[in-house]
Design brief:
β7 and β8 (182-190) form a beta hairpin. The radius of gyration is 23 Å and the shape is globular. α1 packs antiparallel against α2 and α3 (216-227) packs parallel to α4 (258-273). The chain has helices spanning 142-164, 193-201, 216-227, 258-273, 293-305, 316-326, 376-383, 474-482, and strands at residues 55-62, 77-81, 84-86, 90-95, 110-112, 123-130, 172-178, 182-190, 234-239, 276-281, 329-335, 346-353, 359-361, 365-367, 399-405, 419-427, 435-436, 442-453, 459-472, 485-493, 496-506, 511-521. The protein is 19% helix and 30% strand. The strands form five sheets. It has a five-stranded mixed beta sheet with strand order 8-7-6-9-10, with helices on both faces. Strands 17, 18, 19, 21 and 22 form a five-stranded antiparallel beta sheet that branches. It has eight helices and 22 strands. Among the domains are: 120-329, von Willebrand factor, type A domain (Rossmann fold, 3-Layer(aba) Sandwich); 376-521, Immunoglobulin-like, CATH 2.60.40.
Length: 524
């Protein structure tokens, strides 16, 4: 079923540049068996339990007046994949009154990459995608600059007005992508509307120099990696022209470079697996000349990811408010696909309710892609971009990090370049992608990275990296899933005020978790 757009789409030209995207299993998840006292944040109660190869779908249900319909049960819904019915395995009705989970208390010298994120959705992601059509040198084409500038200056004003008055408890974050400076997180998730509005007010919409060729697809992937640790629905309000993040990677929209097509398909898989719904938002306001291919593309992106396109409106504040209000109540359900393994094909989803006159919005498809190992470009991206100072943190893998000086009963070895420290990574093993061999043994490959920066942003210690290869027999498997996995990596640190960047990577399926912490290392 195609989702109805209550507001709608974009005619701004779409720019596609090449880099590498992560390929991940399209619709898989696992349930953690760890006790509450163990590792990791707990989802808001009650939680929907997700098992391996389970497909999750968020469904917005409204009546003929556009009001949310509450009180539906599992028996009111039917689910079909490729025309065949499937039983609903998990079912949960979310309402904005659902209680949140208390913040975890961490032990001394312990940090986590989950603390900056809400535990569960829905959350609102405001993403300003500012096109690089301004002149170089800056100011040499004032007409083009003024045209683009006026569009986004107006969008900034009205969206900031909404943030200042957004409902209490609304979780919002603000991103900006500009091709001359890449992706920036202007404001992390907050319920402080004035703070988020100030971040929008301070956004500079005109390019300051020659575009260096930052990659919009990679920026979308990094955004998805940042919000991966949030359970449930994420609304991505894309202000500008999103690339064709659809199931065929833009092939039907005229993109012929198959590298780009497959990268966009991978991004679509990531967005649908992580319950990210795209709301393309045309910032140009009311248009007198009608709509073209950009509008149709925006509608397609919205319907395939479970969002709605926003166009031909000057009520920016009202449009954002409607997105937040419409998604304050929804149902999350799941089912198990009929296939034993990922088949790499497209699959259509149809959901219905047994009551007349109701309108449903949900993502209507997914690609059941098989996991692929990282290529050389992605490997370089892991080591450099993800581990760079100030890089956007990734929460695809959640972990705790305990950093302390190593206990020693004697003098430091002569080869030591600083004070020995030990970084202990603790994480839920059910996050890992395990490859099963013919004898039932399951394997995984985990990479730990550390890099220390001084106050001048210099990498003062060469990034320490180590790969751990795990092999779990069938007899060990159940016990392996029940206990947190702990891996340590030593590093010698010079004294002074440092910034330590830590990374945890599942190299089989390109999933990452990263964390940046301040650290003061005393003299010997």
């Amino acid at each position: 079923m195609r989702s109805r757009a209550t507001t709608s789409a974009l005619l701004i030209p779409i720019a596609i540049v090449a880099l590498c995207a992560a390929r991940v299993p399209a619709q898989t998840g696992v349930e953690s068996n760890l006790p509450e006292a163990g590792f990791g944040p707990q989802a808001a109660a009650p939680t929907i339990h997700v098992y391996s190869r389970e497909t999750i779908v968020d469904v917005l249900v409204t009546d003929d007046k556009g009001q949310p319909v509450r009180g539906l049960t599992r028996s009111d819904f039917t689910v079909e994949e490729d025309g065949h019915s499937h039983p609903i395995r998990s079912f949960y009705e979310y309402d904005k009154t659902t209680p949140s989970t208390p913040v975890r208390t961490l032990p001394p010298d312990t940090y986590t990459n989950a603390t900056a994120l809400p535990t569960s959705g829905p959350v609102q992601i405001l993403y300003f995608d500012i096109p690089c059509i301004c002149s170089f040198p800056p100011g040499s084409d004032p007409i083009a600059a003024a045209a683009v500038g006026s569009i986004f200056v107006r969008a900034k004003k009205y969206i900031a007005d909404y943030l200042r008055t957004m409902p209490a408890g609304t979780q919002s974050a603000v991103f900006a992508y500009r091709c001359d400076y890449g992706l920036h997180l202007l404001q992390g998730f907050t319920t402080d509307g004035p703070a988020a509005a100030a971040a929008v007010d301070n956004l500079v919409v005109l390019s300051a120099g020659k575009p260096p060729g930052f990659d919009p697809i990679a920026a979308a992937d990094q955004t998805a990696a940042y919000v991966a640790g949030i359970h449930g629905r994420k609304n991505l309000i894309w202000i500008g022209a999103p690339p064709p993040i659809v199931r065929d990677g833009g092939l039907s929209w005229g993109i012929t470079d198959m590298t780009i097509v497959h990268r966009l398909m991978d991004t679509f898989d990531t967005f649908t697996r992580q319950q990210i719904a795209i709301y393309p938002f045309d910032p140009r306001g009311v248009q007198e000349r009608g709509f073209g291919m950009g509008t149709l593309l925006a509608e397609d992106i919205a319907s395939q990811t479970g969002g709605a396109a926003i166009y031909n409106t000057n009520d920016y504040k009202g449009a954002v408010a409607k997105v937040v209000d419409d998604t304050s109540h929804f149902y999350t359900l799941s089912y198990i696909p009929p296939r034993a393994f990922d088949d790499g094909h497209y699959h259509a989803i149809k959901i219905a309710v047994n009551r007349a006159g109701l309108h449903l919005v949900y993502r209507n498809s997914y690609n059941d892609e098989q996991p692929a190992p990282p290529d050389t470009v992605l490997k370089a991206h892991m080591d450099q971009a993800s581990m760079g100072l100030g890089a956007l943190p990734s929460t695809q893998l959640l972990f705790d990090l305990n950093v302390q000086p190593k206990s020693s009963s004697g003098p430091a070895p002569p080869h030591a370049k600083g004070i020995p420290y030990e970084a202990l990574f603790t994480f839920d093993p059910t996050q890992l992608a395990l490859t099963e061999t013919t004898d039932g043994t399951r394997t995984a490959s985990i990479e730990l990275d550390l890099g220390a920066y001084d106050s001048f942003s210099n990498l003062v210690v060469a990034a320490r990296s180590q790969t751990f290869r795990l092999s779990i027999t069938p007899a060990q498997y159940a016990g392996f899933l029940r206990s947190p996995l702990k891996l340590s990596l030593p590093i010698d640190l010079p004294h002074g005020q440092l910034t330590l960047h830590a990374g945890l990577f599942d190299t089989a399926v390109n999933k990452a978790g990263t964390l940046e912490i301040p650290l003061t290392v005393p003299k010997k």
